[in-house]
Amino acid sequence: MLVWLAVAPFAGWAVLRTIPADVDFRWVQLVGFTPYVAPASIVAVITALASRRWTALAVSLMSTATLAAHVLPRALPAGGHTTGPPLRVLTSNLLKGSVPGPALIDLVRRLRPDVLTLQELTPSAAAELKRDGLEGLLPYKVDRSRPGVGGSGIYARFPVTPDEAIELGGFGQARASVDVPGAGPVEIVSVHPCAPRYENRFACWAEGLAALSGRPRASSVLAGDFNATLDHAPTRRLLAEGYHDAADTMGQGLATTWPYQPWHFNGFAIPPVTLDHVLAGPGVGVRAFGVHRLPVTDHHAVFAELVLPPAT
């Protein structure tokens, strides 16, 4: 009986992770920690082996193999290098506009992104960024700033055509087409659905991610704070539709982005997970990826150098 107490939680986790849906609100809060559960499942294998419980051993081995199959590929480069016009993308959650403008602009100068997507962009933060010279580096923008956590924005080196923002639960996800030389229009979304911190926000979170779904254009880019990892069903659905994660493609899919400072929920310390992503459409290659620290915010900024299909 004690052996099964060690085996059953990992077996249940493996089964739930394989189901193509988030079966319950509490599971949504837990499934993001699958990269920690996968190596921990070895404990069940060792326990069953030491106890010579062969059925339990078989179940534990299957559970560990299943979890490893979900997690390990993220540490293996998939080879996304292609030829074509480059597009450098940077995204950052500003924590209610708290990131100092000079710090963000310094990062922009160092990384030289062509597109910058921002989440939790407040009107005061947008004004500070303008005052500090961001628009001299990225002169085109779509400003969907608002007080609090629901604002977003897109800044670009190339002309942009604003599209209708995705508005759900007080969160506005800015959208635009960026006219990249040699590639034509590239659809950009500054992703930020509401966080599933409480059960009454679960529907808002699910709907905000579902609004990103649909057959992606060859040159689509979703960049931002997804409030979801690659283990959440809505993100997996986007990947199944043709998007690919820049970090995963470069073998850095286990690089965590939130929180990089101690953060507690109901008295428990939260291990860091990967909530911030750059998802690229099926025609887009990936040449580089990295995470970068900014002051004040609890999210790492995420950078990806993409390669677009040439215009025909």
Entry keywords:
six-stranded mixed beta sheet, alpha+beta, Deoxyribonuclease I, Chain A, 312 residues
Summary, kept brief:
By secondary structure, the chain is α+β, with helices and mostly antiparallel strands.
Written description of the protein model:
- The chain is α+β, with helices and mostly antiparallel strands.
- It has helices spanning 2-18, 25-31, 34-40, 42-51, 54-71, 101-111, 123-132, 134-137, 202-210, 233-241, 246-249; strands at 86-93, 115-119, 140-144, 152-156, 160-168, 171-180, 184-191, 220-225, 244-245, 264-265, 268-269, 276-280, 285-292, 301-307.
- The protein folds into two domains: 2-75, no CATH class; 86-307, Endonuclease/exonuclease/phosphatase (Deoxyribonuclease I, Chain A).
- The longest helix is centred in the first third of the chain and has 18 residues, at 54-71.
- The mean pLDDT is 95.
- This is Endonuclease.
- Residues 90-299 form the Endonuclease/exonuclease/phosphatase domain.
- InterPro entries: Endo/exonu/phosph_ase_sf (IPR036691), Endo/exonuclease/phosphatase (IPR005135).
- One of its GO terms (molecular function) is endonuclease activity.
